[in-house]
Specification:
Order of helices and strands: EEEHEHEEEEHEEEEHHEEEHHHE
Helix content: 25-40%
Number of domains: 1
Number of strands: 16
Number of helices: 8
Strand content: 25-35%
Mean pLDDT: 94
CATH architecture: 3-Layer(aba) Sandwich
Strand order of the largest sheet: 5-4-1-8-9-12-13-14-15-16
Largest sheet: 10 strands, mixed
CATH superfamily: Ribokinase
């Protein structure tokens, strides 16, 4: 069948990452990680984003060389790019917003797309715009992280509760931390019950080192992680989502798509930056790992 055609919408960012007192800069944002994962798996990928003139041209060239369509990435004259400082202390992540790009208008011709991945990171569009897209017939995967974020006076990110009951939403991809805020509970059973009330056809609950849970109709499957040494966890959930979307569109096989998502996420965390997503061998290795992961998937 023809390759999946998808658009990924959200701010591309500049991330200043601090791990164990070591600091480095990297391209970031859901749009970046999900697009590279989807493109590695052969999808026809377009990014829709706004950036400032401070966004490094080398980052754009990285995306172009990977085959990502950047024709709808707007460089705003005298604007700033969304920039975060992301610090890791063990499994704890602290984020500070240093600058923010302009909003993104959710107006696009989606009829020729197989799916749209919405990956806001700094409230660059709102829920009303998302609902309008669904009413127009768009098939959406939503990662709500950027809609749930608020900042304090020093720019540090906090999460807030949000009503994510969106009729007609196809796929919801959410982290455990975000889901616990929504459910107002840290008990996994209560989190799962709450997510079931939101109405998404498929819900992907990523659990960090514990893998992921996939909720579909009345079914729940547990997807393990491939065991690796985690060097930098940035973007793992975004990679999972991008890879899952492509494989689910291709195969309609929920378990295989989840296994591929988990496998691709395991590859990106093994080193700093985006290098694993640009490797010519990534698909072969991801499929090898995915076959092992699938054997360990459990239905709950």
């Amino acid at each position: 069948m023809p390759e999946a055609r998808i658009a990924i919408i959200g701010h591309l960012s500049i991330d200043e990452i601090v791990i164990e007192d070591e600091r480095y800069e990297n391209m970031g944002g859901v749009a970046c990680y999900a697009a590279l994962a989807a493109r590695a798996l052969g999808a026809d990928v377009k990014i829709i984003s706004t950036i400032g003139e401070d966004f490094p041209k080398s980052y754009l060239e990285t995306l172009r060389r990977a085959g990502v369509d950047l024709s709808d990435v707007q460089v705003m004259a005298q604007g700033r790019t969304t920039r975060f400082e992301i610090s890791y202390l063990g499994d704890k992540r602290v984020m500070r917003l240093l600058s923010r790009a302009e909003d993104i208008e959710l107006k696009l011709h989606h009829e020729d797309l197989d799916g749209i991945y919405l990956g806001p990171i700094a409230w660059e569009f709102d829920l009303d715009s998302i609902r309008r897209l669904i009413e127009e017939g768009a098939r959406l995967l939503l990662d709500p992280q950027g809609l749930m974020r608020t900042i304090d006076a020093s720019g540090f990110i906090r999460l807030k509760r949000l009503d994510l009951r969106i009729p007609g939403l196809w796929i919801l991809r959410i982290s455990r931390e975000e889901a616990e805020i929504l459910a107002n509970s840290s008990k996994l059973s209560e989190v799962i019950d709450y997510l079931g009330t939101l109405g998404a056809e498929v819900t992907i609950l990523t659990l960090g080192r514990e893998g992921a849970l996939i909720l579909h109709s009345s079914k729940i499957i547990r997807v393990p992680c491939y065991p690796v040494k985690v060097v930098d966890p940035t973007g793992a959930g975004d990679v999972f989502g991008g890879a899952f979307l492509v494989e689910f569109l291709r195969s309609q096989d929920l378990e295989w798509a989840a296994a591929i998502g988990s496998a691709m996420a395991s590859l990106v965390v093994e080193s700093k930056g985006l290098h694993p997503l640009l490797s010519p061998n990534i698909v072969e290795e991801a499929r090898r790992r995915a076959r092992m992961i699938r054997e360990l998937i459990k239905r709950l």
